[in-house]
Protein backbone atom coordinates (compact mmCIF):
# COMPACT_ATOMS: atom_id res chain seq x y z
CA UNK A 1 0.00 0.00 0.00
CA UNK A 2 2.85 2.31 0.76
CA UNK A 3 4.49 1.52 -2.60
CA UNK A 4 1.27 2.41 -4.41
CA UNK A 5 1.07 5.83 -2.76
CA UNK A 6 4.62 6.65 -3.66
CA UNK A 7 3.97 5.77 -7.27
CA UNK A 8 0.94 8.01 -7.45
CA UNK A 9 2.88 10.99 -5.99
CA UNK A 10 5.68 10.62 -8.53
CA UNK A 11 3.14 10.44 -11.35
CA UNK A 12 1.52 13.69 -10.16
CA UNK A 13 4.82 15.60 -10.15
CA UNK A 14 5.64 14.38 -13.65
CA UNK A 15 2.22 15.46 -14.89
CA UNK A 16 2.75 18.98 -13.50
CA UNK A 17 6.09 19.27 -15.28
CA UNK A 18 4.54 18.20 -18.60
CA UNK A 19 1.62 20.61 -18.31
CA UNK A 20 3.85 23.58 -17.15
CA UNK A 21 1.74 24.45 -14.10
CA UNK A 22 4.53 24.62 -11.56
CA UNK A 23 4.60 28.49 -11.49
CA UNK A 24 4.58 30.07 -7.99
CA UNK A 25 1.26 31.72 -6.97
CA UNK A 26 1.86 34.87 -4.79
CA UNK A 27 -1.11 35.57 -2.56
CA UNK A 28 0.47 38.22 -0.32
CA UNK A 29 3.31 40.72 -0.39
CA UNK A 30 6.14 39.37 -2.60
CA UNK A 31 9.59 38.65 -1.26
CA UNK A 32 11.86 41.57 -0.43
CA UNK A 33 13.23 43.20 -3.52
CA UNK A 34 10.20 42.47 -5.71
CA UNK A 35 9.13 46.18 -5.59
CA UNK A 36 11.45 48.86 -6.86
CA UNK A 37 9.42 51.49 -4.94
CA UNK A 38 9.23 51.52 -1.15
CA UNK A 39 6.25 52.25 1.13
CA UNK A 40 6.26 55.92 2.12
CA UNK A 41 4.25 58.58 3.91
CA UNK A 42 3.95 61.75 1.86
CA UNK A 43 3.32 64.95 3.85
CA UNK A 44 2.06 67.85 1.78
CA UNK A 45 0.13 71.08 2.22
CA UNK A 46 -3.23 71.70 0.63
CA UNK A 47 -3.23 72.27 -3.16
CA UNK A 48 0.11 70.49 -3.60
CA UNK A 49 0.56 67.59 -6.08
CA UNK A 50 1.46 64.10 -4.86
CA UNK A 51 2.84 61.16 -6.90
CA UNK A 52 2.50 57.73 -5.28
CA UNK A 53 4.95 55.24 -6.86
CA UNK A 54 4.18 51.62 -7.68
CA UNK A 55 7.27 50.18 -9.46
CA UNK A 56 7.84 46.45 -9.72
CA UNK A 57 10.84 44.52 -11.07
CA UNK A 58 8.56 42.44 -13.31
CA UNK A 59 6.05 43.45 -15.99
CA UNK A 60 2.49 43.58 -14.70
CA UNK A 61 -0.78 42.52 -16.26
CA UNK A 62 -2.83 45.16 -14.45
CA UNK A 63 -2.60 47.67 -11.57
CA UNK A 64 -5.27 48.56 -9.09
CA UNK A 65 -5.35 51.47 -6.55
CA UNK A 66 -7.63 51.83 -3.52
CA UNK A 67 -7.82 54.17 -0.54
CA UNK A 68 -9.01 52.93 2.81
CA UNK A 69 -10.48 49.87 0.97
CA UNK A 70 -12.36 52.14 -1.48
CA UNK A 71 -11.55 51.41 -5.14
CA UNK A 72 -10.07 54.40 -6.97
CA UNK A 73 -8.77 53.09 -10.32
CA UNK A 74 -8.27 49.69 -12.05
CA UNK A 75 -6.38 49.40 -15.36
CA UNK A 76 -8.53 46.43 -16.36
CA UNK A 77 -11.59 48.63 -16.50
CA UNK A 78 -10.83 51.72 -18.61
CA UNK A 79 -14.47 52.77 -18.48
CA UNK A 80 -14.30 53.09 -14.69
CA UNK A 81 -14.48 56.80 -13.86
CA UNK A 82 -11.38 58.02 -12.09
CA UNK A 83 -12.00 60.31 -9.07
CA UNK A 84 -11.39 64.04 -9.67
CA UNK A 85 -7.77 65.20 -9.43
CA UNK A 86 -6.43 61.64 -9.80
CA UNK A 87 -4.59 60.08 -12.75
CA UNK A 88 -3.00 56.66 -13.32
CA UNK A 89 0.38 56.74 -14.95
CA UNK A 90 1.47 54.05 -17.47
CA UNK A 91 4.15 52.82 -15.06
CA UNK A 92 1.48 52.19 -12.38
CA UNK A 93 2.02 55.29 -10.25
CA UNK A 94 -0.95 57.35 -9.01
CA UNK A 95 -0.94 61.13 -9.23
CA UNK A 96 -3.15 63.28 -7.00
CA UNK A 97 -3.27 66.98 -7.83
CA UNK A 98 -4.39 69.88 -5.60
CA UNK A 99 -4.62 67.61 -2.58
CA UNK A 100 -7.27 68.47 0.02
CA UNK A 101 -7.74 67.42 3.62
CA UNK A 102 -10.13 64.65 2.52
CA UNK A 103 -7.31 63.06 0.51
CA UNK A 104 -5.54 62.10 3.72
CA UNK A 105 -5.48 58.32 4.12
CA UNK A 106 -3.80 54.99 3.30
CA UNK A 107 -3.43 54.12 -0.41
CA UNK A 108 -2.94 50.51 -1.58
CA UNK A 109 -1.24 49.65 -4.88
CA UNK A 110 -2.01 46.09 -6.14
CA UNK A 111 -0.36 44.62 -9.27
CA UNK A 112 -0.67 41.30 -11.03
CA UNK A 113 2.56 40.01 -12.59
CA UNK A 114 3.44 36.72 -14.13
CA UNK A 115 4.56 35.68 -10.67
CA UNK A 116 1.26 36.51 -9.02
CA UNK A 117 -0.34 39.38 -7.09
CA UNK A 118 1.68 41.85 -5.01
CA UNK A 119 0.69 44.93 -3.03
CA UNK A 120 2.33 47.98 -1.47
CA UNK A 121 0.92 50.59 0.91
CA UNK A 122 1.52 54.37 0.84
CA UNK A 123 0.08 57.19 2.98
CA UNK A 124 -0.86 60.77 2.16
CA UNK A 125 -0.93 63.20 5.05
CA UNK A 126 -2.31 66.59 4.04
CA UNK A 127 -1.10 69.17 6.57
CA UNK A 128 -3.44 72.07 7.26
CA UNK A 129 -3.75 74.95 9.68
CA UNK A 130 -5.10 74.31 13.16
CA UNK A 131 -8.62 75.32 14.13
CA UNK A 132 -10.03 75.85 17.62
CA UNK A 133 -13.50 76.12 19.16
CA UNK A 134 -14.35 76.56 22.84
CA UNK A 135 -17.33 74.97 24.57
CA UNK A 136 -19.49 76.24 26.11
CA UNK A 137 -19.69 79.06 23.60
CA UNK A 138 -21.96 81.38 25.61
CA UNK A 139 -20.59 83.56 28.46
CA UNK A 140 -20.10 81.63 31.69
CA UNK A 141 -21.50 82.84 35.03
CA UNK A 142 -19.72 81.21 37.96
CA UNK A 143 -19.25 81.87 41.68
CA UNK A 144 -16.07 82.14 43.69
CA UNK A 145 -15.16 78.68 44.99
CA UNK A 146 -16.57 76.77 42.04
CA UNK A 147 -14.62 74.85 39.37
CA UNK A 148 -14.50 76.35 35.89
CA UNK A 149 -14.54 73.69 33.16
CA UNK A 150 -14.00 74.61 29.52
CA UNK A 151 -13.30 72.31 26.55
CA UNK A 152 -11.26 73.28 23.49
CA UNK A 153 -12.05 71.30 20.34
CA UNK A 154 -9.17 71.49 17.86
CA UNK A 155 -8.42 70.13 14.38
CA UNK A 156 -5.32 70.23 12.23
CA UNK A 157 -2.47 68.15 10.83
CA UNK A 158 -0.03 67.73 12.48
CA UNK A 159 -1.87 67.38 15.78
CA UNK A 160 -2.12 70.88 17.32
CA UNK A 161 -0.53 71.86 20.62
CA UNK A 162 -3.05 73.50 22.98
CA UNK A 163 -2.35 76.36 25.38
CA UNK A 164 -4.83 78.01 27.78
CA UNK A 165 -4.62 81.64 28.84
CA UNK A 166 -6.67 83.56 31.39
CA UNK A 167 -6.59 87.07 29.97
CA UNK A 168 -7.34 88.91 33.18
CA UNK A 169 -5.57 90.21 36.27
CA UNK A 170 -3.95 86.80 36.82
CA UNK A 171 -2.32 86.67 33.37
CA UNK A 172 -1.59 83.01 34.05
CA UNK A 173 -1.56 79.78 32.06
CA UNK A 174 -2.81 77.06 34.39
CA UNK A 175 -2.78 74.21 31.85
CA UNK A 176 -0.90 73.44 28.66
CA UNK A 177 -1.56 70.83 25.95
CA UNK A 178 -4.84 69.86 27.61
CA UNK A 179 -8.10 69.80 25.70
CA UNK A 180 -10.07 70.45 28.90
CA UNK A 181 -9.42 73.27 31.34
CA UNK A 182 -10.46 72.82 34.98
CA UNK A 183 -9.50 75.60 37.37
CA UNK A 184 -10.71 76.73 40.80
CA UNK A 185 -12.20 80.23 40.81
CA UNK A 186 -10.44 81.78 43.81
CA UNK A 187 -11.60 85.39 43.57
CA UNK A 188 -13.13 87.98 41.26
CA UNK A 189 -9.85 88.50 39.40
CA UNK A 190 -10.64 85.35 37.43
CA UNK A 191 -13.28 87.30 35.50
CA UNK A 192 -12.37 87.83 31.87
CA UNK A 193 -11.85 85.91 28.65
CA UNK A 194 -10.51 82.37 28.83
CA UNK A 195 -8.62 81.70 25.59
CA UNK A 196 -7.55 78.48 23.92
CA UNK A 197 -4.68 78.67 21.40
CA UNK A 198 -4.00 75.76 19.00
CA UNK A 199 -0.64 75.64 17.19
CA UNK A 200 0.70 73.02 14.77
CA UNK A 201 3.29 74.96 12.77
CA UNK A 202 1.07 75.35 9.70
CA UNK A 203 0.01 78.94 9.19
CA UNK A 204 -0.98 81.15 12.11
CA UNK A 205 -2.13 79.76 15.49
CA UNK A 206 -5.88 79.45 15.95
CA UNK A 207 -7.59 80.99 18.97
CA UNK A 208 -11.02 80.75 20.54
CA UNK A 209 -12.26 82.26 23.79
CA UNK A 210 -15.24 82.54 26.09
CA UNK A 211 -16.09 85.26 28.62
CA UNK A 212 -16.19 84.33 32.31
CA UNK A 213 -18.17 86.45 34.76
CA UNK A 214 -17.35 85.71 38.38
CA UNK A 215 -20.07 86.33 40.94
CA UNK A 216 -18.59 87.25 44.33
CA UNK A 217 -19.57 88.49 47.76
CA UNK A 218 -19.58 92.32 47.85
CA UNK A 219 -16.32 93.98 48.87
CA UNK A 220 -16.65 97.03 51.10
CA UNK A 221 -14.01 99.73 51.45
CA UNK A 222 -14.31 102.28 54.26
CA UNK A 223 -11.81 105.07 53.63
CA UNK A 224 -12.74 106.99 56.80
CA UNK A 225 -13.73 104.52 59.55
CA UNK A 226 -14.02 107.28 62.17
CA UNK A 227 -15.84 110.52 61.33
CA UNK A 228 -15.35 113.32 63.84
CA UNK A 229 -18.14 115.86 64.06
CA UNK A 230 -20.15 117.96 66.48
CA UNK A 231 -23.77 118.16 67.52
CA UNK A 232 -25.81 120.40 65.26
CA UNK A 233 -23.60 119.82 62.23
CA UNK A 234 -24.07 117.40 59.32
CA UNK A 235 -22.27 114.06 59.56
CA UNK A 236 -21.59 111.97 56.46
CA UNK A 237 -20.58 108.30 56.55
CA UNK A 238 -19.35 106.69 53.34
CA UNK A 239 -18.50 103.24 52.04
CA UNK A 240 -17.48 102.03 48.57
CA UNK A 241 -18.99 98.73 47.44
CA UNK A 242 -17.58 96.56 44.67
CA UNK A 243 -19.84 93.72 43.61
CA UNK A 244 -21.17 91.47 40.87
CA UNK A 245 -24.09 91.16 40.73
CA UNK A 246 -24.87 94.67 41.99
CA UNK A 247 -25.37 94.72 45.76
CA UNK A 248 -28.21 96.11 47.82
CA UNK A 249 -27.14 98.42 50.67
CA UNK A 250 -28.57 98.67 54.20
CA UNK A 251 -27.43 100.94 57.04
CA UNK A 252 -27.46 99.99 60.74
CA UNK A 253 -26.89 102.02 63.88
CA UNK A 254 -25.93 100.04 66.98
CA UNK A 255 -27.26 96.93 65.22
CA UNK A 256 -30.66 98.39 64.38
CA UNK A 257 -31.77 99.45 60.88
CA UNK A 258 -31.47 103.17 60.26
CA UNK A 259 -34.84 104.85 59.86
CA UNK A 260 -34.70 107.38 57.04
CA UNK A 261 -36.59 110.63 57.17
CA UNK A 262 -36.10 114.23 56.06
CA UNK A 263 -33.15 114.59 58.44
CA UNK A 264 -31.45 111.22 57.78
CA UNK A 265 -31.03 110.34 54.12
CA UNK A 266 -28.87 107.97 52.07
CA UNK A 267 -27.09 109.01 48.91
CA UNK A 268 -26.07 106.40 46.32
CA UNK A 269 -23.92 107.08 43.27
CA UNK A 270 -22.29 104.96 40.57
CA UNK A 271 -18.48 105.25 40.58
CA UNK A 272 -17.47 102.67 37.96
CA UNK A 273 -19.46 100.40 35.68
CA UNK A 274 -16.84 97.80 34.76
CA UNK A 275 -17.49 94.93 32.40
CA UNK A 276 -17.07 92.42 35.21
CA UNK A 277 -18.08 94.37 38.33
CA UNK A 278 -19.68 97.57 39.58
CA UNK A 279 -18.33 100.08 42.10
CA UNK A 280 -20.85 102.26 43.93
CA UNK A 281 -20.48 104.99 46.55
CA UNK A 282 -23.02 104.86 49.38
CA UNK A 283 -23.34 107.71 51.86
CA UNK A 284 -25.42 108.18 54.97
CA UNK A 285 -26.00 111.89 55.61
CA UNK A 286 -27.38 113.01 58.98
CA UNK A 287 -28.31 116.68 59.24
CA UNK A 288 -28.59 118.61 62.50
CA UNK A 289 -26.76 115.93 64.47
CA UNK A 290 -27.98 114.94 67.89
CA UNK A 291 -26.16 113.11 70.65
CA UNK A 292 -28.27 110.03 69.94
CA UNK A 293 -26.96 109.95 66.36
CA UNK A 294 -23.39 109.33 67.49
CA UNK A 295 -21.99 105.84 67.77
CA UNK A 296 -21.22 102.75 65.74
CA UNK A 297 -22.67 102.32 62.25
CA UNK A 298 -22.50 99.46 59.79
CA UNK A 299 -22.83 99.53 56.03
CA UNK A 300 -24.08 96.11 54.87
CA UNK A 301 -24.01 95.08 51.23
CA UNK A 302 -25.64 91.90 49.93
CA UNK A 303 -26.30 90.11 46.67
CA UNK A 304 -27.29 86.54 45.85
CA UNK A 305 -23.75 85.34 46.61
CA UNK A 306 -23.41 86.68 50.15
CA UNK A 307 -23.38 89.61 52.57
CA UNK A 308 -20.49 91.79 53.77
CA UNK A 309 -20.32 94.67 56.23
CA UNK A 310 -18.13 97.67 56.96
CA UNK A 311 -17.81 99.32 60.37
CA UNK A 312 -17.89 103.10 60.82
CA UNK A 313 -18.05 105.42 63.80
CA UNK A 314 -19.66 108.82 64.04
CA UNK A 315 -18.14 110.47 67.07
CA UNK A 316 -17.60 113.75 68.83
CA UNK A 317 -14.35 112.55 70.43
CA UNK A 318 -11.15 114.46 69.67
CA UNK A 319 -9.03 113.46 66.72
CA UNK A 320 -5.67 111.78 67.17
CA UNK A 321 -3.04 114.25 68.36
CA UNK A 322 0.26 114.72 66.56
CA UNK A 323 3.56 115.92 67.98
CA UNK A 324 5.17 119.04 66.51
CA UNK A 325 8.80 120.17 66.72
CA UNK A 326 9.47 122.14 69.90
CA UNK A 327 11.27 125.45 69.49
CA UNK A 328 12.87 125.55 72.93
CA UNK A 329 15.98 123.51 73.71
CA UNK A 330 15.77 120.55 76.02
CA UNK A 331 18.31 119.48 78.63
CA UNK A 332 19.77 116.11 79.68
CA UNK A 333 16.98 115.77 82.27
CA UNK A 334 14.06 117.54 80.53
CA UNK A 335 12.29 117.39 77.21
CA UNK A 336 9.92 119.89 75.61
CA UNK A 337 6.82 118.74 73.73
CA UNK A 338 4.27 120.45 71.55
CA UNK A 339 1.27 118.57 70.24
CA UNK A 340 -1.78 119.50 68.27
CA UNK A 341 -5.24 118.00 67.95
CA UNK A 342 -8.68 118.83 66.61
CA UNK A 343 -11.88 118.69 68.59
CA UNK A 344 -15.24 120.19 67.76
CA UNK A 345 -16.12 120.19 71.45
CA UNK A 346 -14.06 121.91 74.17
CA UNK A 347 -11.20 119.80 75.50
CA UNK A 348 -11.17 118.87 79.16
CA UNK A 349 -7.73 117.34 79.65
CA UNK A 350 -4.80 115.48 78.12
CA UNK A 351 -3.11 112.28 79.15
CA UNK A 352 0.63 112.08 78.56
CA UNK A 353 2.08 108.57 78.86
CA UNK A 354 5.82 107.93 78.83
CA UNK A 355 8.34 105.20 79.61
CA UNK A 356 12.04 104.61 79.43
CA UNK A 357 13.41 102.28 76.74
CA UNK A 358 16.53 100.19 77.50
CA UNK A 359 19.23 101.81 75.39
CA UNK A 360 20.88 98.53 74.45
CA UNK A 361 18.11 97.81 71.97
CA UNK A 362 15.90 100.68 70.93
CA UNK A 363 13.50 98.77 68.69
CA UNK A 364 10.58 97.56 70.84
CA UNK A 365 9.45 94.91 68.36
CA UNK A 366 12.84 93.18 68.55
CA UNK A 367 13.30 92.98 72.31
CA UNK A 368 13.44 89.70 74.11
CA UNK A 369 12.41 91.28 77.42
CA UNK A 370 9.17 92.99 78.49
CA UNK A 371 8.85 96.74 78.18
CA UNK A 372 8.64 98.85 81.28
CA UNK A 373 5.25 100.05 82.41
CA UNK A 374 3.88 103.34 81.15
CA UNK A 375 3.82 106.36 83.45
CA UNK A 376 1.04 108.83 82.86
CA UNK A 377 0.29 112.44 83.64
CA UNK A 378 -3.05 114.21 83.45
CA UNK A 379 -2.63 117.71 82.02
CA UNK A 380 -5.58 120.13 82.14
CA UNK A 381 -6.77 121.75 78.96
CA UNK A 382 -5.89 125.37 78.32
CA UNK A 383 -9.57 126.21 77.80
CA UNK A 384 -9.37 127.02 74.08
CA UNK A 385 -12.53 126.37 72.12
CA UNK A 386 -10.91 125.10 68.93
CA UNK A 387 -11.47 123.23 66.78
CA UNK A 388 -7.66 123.33 66.53
CA UNK A 389 -5.91 122.91 69.87
CA UNK A 390 -2.17 123.19 70.55
CA UNK A 391 -0.36 122.85 73.85
CA UNK A 392 3.22 122.64 75.06
CA UNK A 393 4.60 120.70 77.98
CA UNK A 394 8.03 120.13 79.55
CA UNK A 395 8.71 116.72 81.03
CA UNK A 396 11.26 116.99 83.82
CA UNK A 397 13.26 114.63 86.00
CA UNK A 398 14.40 112.39 83.15
CA UNK A 399 17.51 110.24 83.23
CA UNK A 400 20.42 111.56 81.16
CA UNK A 401 21.74 109.50 78.24
CA UNK A 402 18.49 107.57 78.02
CA UNK A 403 15.85 106.76 75.44
CA UNK A 404 12.17 107.42 76.15
CA UNK A 405 8.86 106.86 74.41
CA UNK A 406 5.83 109.08 74.83
CA UNK A 407 2.25 109.20 73.57
CA UNK A 408 -0.60 111.60 74.21
CA UNK A 409 -4.40 111.38 74.29
CA UNK A 410 -7.00 114.12 74.67
CA UNK A 411 -10.52 114.10 76.12
CA UNK A 412 -13.69 116.09 75.64
CA UNK A 413 -17.24 115.44 76.80
CA UNK A 414 -17.55 112.51 74.39
CA UNK A 415 -14.53 110.60 75.65
CA UNK A 416 -10.86 109.99 75.01
CA UNK A 417 -9.25 110.19 71.60
CA UNK A 418 -7.25 107.35 70.15
CA UNK A 419 -3.57 107.44 71.19
CA UNK A 420 -1.07 109.31 69.07
CA UNK A 421 1.86 107.64 67.39
CA UNK A 422 4.81 106.95 69.66
CA UNK A 423 7.33 109.74 69.90
CA UNK A 424 10.75 108.32 70.80
CA UNK A 425 13.50 110.67 71.98
CA UNK A 426 16.93 110.49 73.61
CA UNK A 427 18.07 112.75 76.41
CA UNK A 428 21.42 114.53 76.08
CA UNK A 429 24.69 112.75 76.74
CA UNK A 430 26.46 109.68 75.47
CA UNK A 431 24.27 106.59 75.18
CA UNK A 432 25.97 103.23 75.56
CA UNK A 433 24.94 100.59 73.02
CA UNK A 434 25.23 96.97 74.05
CA UNK A 435 27.37 94.74 71.79
CA UNK A 436 25.33 92.91 69.18
CA UNK A 437 22.47 95.38 69.30
CA UNK A 438 20.17 95.02 66.31
CA UNK A 439 19.57 98.75 66.01
CA UNK A 440 22.62 101.00 66.28
CA UNK A 441 21.29 103.92 64.26
CA UNK A 442 23.27 107.02 65.16
CA UNK A 443 20.29 109.17 64.26
CA UNK A 444 18.38 107.76 67.21
CA UNK A 445 20.81 108.77 70.00
CA UNK A 446 23.46 111.44 70.41
CA UNK A 447 27.05 110.37 70.89
CA UNK A 448 28.27 113.44 72.76
CA UNK A 449 27.54 114.96 76.15
CA UNK A 450 25.80 117.98 74.66
CA UNK A 451 22.26 118.91 75.57
CA UNK A 452 20.90 118.24 72.09
CA UNK A 453 18.25 115.53 71.74
CA UNK A 454 16.89 113.42 68.92
CA UNK A 455 13.24 112.49 68.43
CA UNK A 456 11.45 110.05 66.18
CA UNK A 457 7.76 109.32 65.66
CA UNK A 458 6.77 105.66 65.36
CA UNK A 459 3.59 103.85 64.51
CA UNK A 460 2.21 102.05 67.55
CA UNK A 461 0.52 98.67 67.75
CA UNK A 462 -2.34 97.88 70.08
CA UNK A 463 -0.57 94.85 71.51
CA UNK A 464 2.42 97.03 72.38
CA UNK A 465 0.61 100.01 73.83
CA UNK A 466 -2.33 98.32 75.39
CA UNK A 467 -5.61 100.14 75.76
CA UNK A 468 -5.37 103.90 76.26
CA UNK A 469 -9.03 104.63 75.80
CA UNK A 470 -9.93 105.46 79.34
CA UNK A 471 -9.64 103.11 82.28
CA UNK A 472 -9.46 99.78 80.51
CA UNK A 473 -12.73 100.07 78.62
CA UNK A 474 -13.20 100.30 74.87
CA UNK A 475 -13.99 103.66 73.33
CA UNK A 476 -17.73 103.87 72.87
CA UNK A 477 -20.19 106.73 72.80
CA UNK A 478 -19.62 107.50 76.45
CA UNK A 479 -20.52 111.09 77.18
CA UNK A 480 -19.59 113.34 80.08
CA UNK A 481 -22.50 115.39 81.45
CA UNK A 482 -22.72 118.95 80.21
CA UNK A 483 -22.13 120.35 83.69
CA UNK A 484 -18.77 118.57 83.89
CA UNK A 485 -17.10 121.36 81.94
CA UNK A 486 -17.48 125.03 82.68
CA UNK A 487 -18.36 126.43 79.27
CA UNK A 488 -18.31 129.93 80.61
CA UNK A 489 -14.52 129.88 80.92
CA UNK A 490 -13.87 128.88 77.32
CA UNK A 491 -12.00 131.48 75.32
CA UNK A 492 -11.75 132.06 71.59
CA UNK A 493 -8.90 130.65 69.50
CA UNK A 494 -6.23 128.10 70.27
CA UNK A 495 -3.64 128.92 72.93
CA UNK A 496 -0.08 127.58 73.18
CA UNK A 497 1.09 127.11 76.77
CA UNK A 498 4.25 125.66 78.31
CA UNK A 499 3.47 123.87 81.54
CA UNK A 500 6.68 122.97 83.34
CA UNK A 501 6.46 120.31 86.04
CA UNK A 502 8.83 120.53 88.94
CA UNK A 503 8.24 117.02 90.25
CA UNK A 504 10.81 114.57 88.80
CA UNK A 505 9.51 111.57 86.89
CA UNK A 506 12.77 109.85 86.01
CA UNK A 507 12.62 106.07 85.64
TrEMBL record:
Keyword match Ribosomal protein: no
Key words of the record: Immunoglobulin domain, Repeat, Signal
A GO term, aspect molecular function: axon guidance receptor activity
Gene Ontology CC annotations of this record: axon; neuronal cell body; plasma membrane
Ranges for region Disordered: 433-460
Superkingdom in the source lineage: Eukaryota
GO biological process, one term: homophilic cell adhesion via plasma membrane adhesion molecules
InterPro entries linked: Cell_Adh-Cytoskel_Orgn, FN3_dom, FN3_sf, Ig-like_dom, Ig-like_dom_sf, Ig-like_fold, Ig_I-set, Ig_sub
Domain Ig-like: 30-125, 130-209, 218-315
Secretion signal span: 1-20
Pfam families: I-set, V-set
SUPFAM superfamilies noted in UniProt: Fibronectin type III, Immunoglobulin
Protein name as annotated: Ig-like domain-containing protein
Organism: Anopheles stephensi (Indo-Pakistan malaria mosquito)
Amino acid sequence: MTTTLMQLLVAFVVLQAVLGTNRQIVTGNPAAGSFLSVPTTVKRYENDTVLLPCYHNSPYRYVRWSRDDLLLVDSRYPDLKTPPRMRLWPNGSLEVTEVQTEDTGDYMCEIMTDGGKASQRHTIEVQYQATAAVYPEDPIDIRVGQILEVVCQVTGVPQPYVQWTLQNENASIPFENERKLAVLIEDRSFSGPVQCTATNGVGEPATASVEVFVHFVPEIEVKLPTVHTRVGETGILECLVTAHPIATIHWFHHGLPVVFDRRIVKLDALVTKHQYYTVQRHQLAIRNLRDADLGQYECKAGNRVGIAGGQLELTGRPMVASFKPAAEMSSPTTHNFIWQTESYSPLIEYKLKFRRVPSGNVTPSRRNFPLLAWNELIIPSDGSYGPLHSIGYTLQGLQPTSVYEVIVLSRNRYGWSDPSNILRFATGGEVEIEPGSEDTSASMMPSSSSSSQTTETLEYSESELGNFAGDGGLITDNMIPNDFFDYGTVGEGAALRLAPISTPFGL
